[in-house]
Design brief:
Elements: H1 2-18, H2 20-24, H3 32-47, H4 58-67, E1 73-77, H5 85-88, E2 96-100, H6 108-120, E3 125-131, H7 135-141, H8 150-154, H9 158-167, H10 173-195, H11 197-204, E4 209-215, E5 222-226, H12 231-236
Parallel strand pairs: 1-2, 1-3, 3-4
Antiparallel strand pairs: 4-5
Helix pairs in contact: 9-10
The chain binds zinc ion.
Zinc ion binds near residues 134 and 135.
Length: about 240
């Protein structure tokens, strides 16, 4: 009888550990500010050349394979080969839920991925990470000719470049690109808030902190810009239809 009970309890514990629903919905168990602090500390280590090479061990791999993932942040960043979030923030396996796309744009697939990170995995932070000398933003700012599927991609960046030109009509070259890179970070956050009922609901409930950030590819430093300047207005606007982008 006693042995049967032990087997039963063991089975319950095993199911709780193995089932991805149990394992992934709980979130990482830290606040947004604690998560941002971990990212900032990791970036300081990276920028100063003192990375811990945070946990990429076989043990960590086995642990996350068995117990599921509990990333501390969902990060939308550029595909640029100089901008790998896990290195930049000195984080290990299972620490970051990363979406990478040229120009860190937020279109349907990126928003769906962000919803998974924020809603299903319960990350307390959603960060859009732009970076200096971004080729995708530069292409739009300079009116470069693009082909194939790229026009549909860079369409997402055009509003940021238009805003940059409107705000500072005399800006050209590097100055225009710099302004557009920052505005493009805000554009992606705006797109997510306008098109995702799920992310809006989480943000309104204070369950996720959405921040913009900029990475300098020369210094290695990330500057966290904070929430979207018009976050309150964006959250106050009528909610988008659930599930529609
Ligand atoms: Zn880029």
């Amino acid at each position: 009888m006693k042995r049967t009970r032990i087997y039963f309890l063991s089975a319950i514990v095993f199911l709780a550990l193995a089932c991805p629903v149990f394992a992934s919905d709980a979130g990482p168990g830290i606040s947004a500010d604690q998560a941002i602090k971990k990212l900032a500390d990791g970036n300081s280590r990276y920028a100063s050349g003192s990375c811990l090479h945070s946990d990429i061990s076989q043990a960590r791999r086995a642990e996350t394979a068995q117990k599921g993932q509990h990333p501390i942040a969902t990060i939308l960043s550029c595909s640029d080969s100089r901008v790998p979030p896990e290195y930049i923030f000195d984080q290990g396996i299972g620490d970051l839920f990363v979406i990478r796309v040229a120009g860190n744009v937020a279109d349907t697939d990126e928003i769906g991925s962000a919803e998974y990170g924020v809603d299903h995995l319960g990350t307390p932070v959603l960060m859009v990470l732009g970076h200096s000398k971004c080729g995708a933003v530069t292409a739009v700012a300079t009116g470069a000719e693009v082909h194939g599927s790229i026009p549909a991609l860079v369409d997402n960046i055009k509003p940021a470049v238009d805003t940059a030109k409107r705000k500072n009509p005399s800006a050209q070259g590097d100055a225009l690109v710099r302004d557009a890179i920052t505005l493009n970070v805000w554009q992606s956050i705006e797109d997510m808030l306008k098109k995702s009922a799920i992310i809006r609901a989480r943000a309104k409930a204070g369950e996720v902190k959405i921040v913009g950030a900029l990475y300098d590819i020369e210094t290695g430093k990330v500057t966290v810009l904070g929430p979207h300047p018009q976050e309150q207005q964006l959250l106050a606007a009528p909610a988008p239809a659930a599930g529609k982008h």
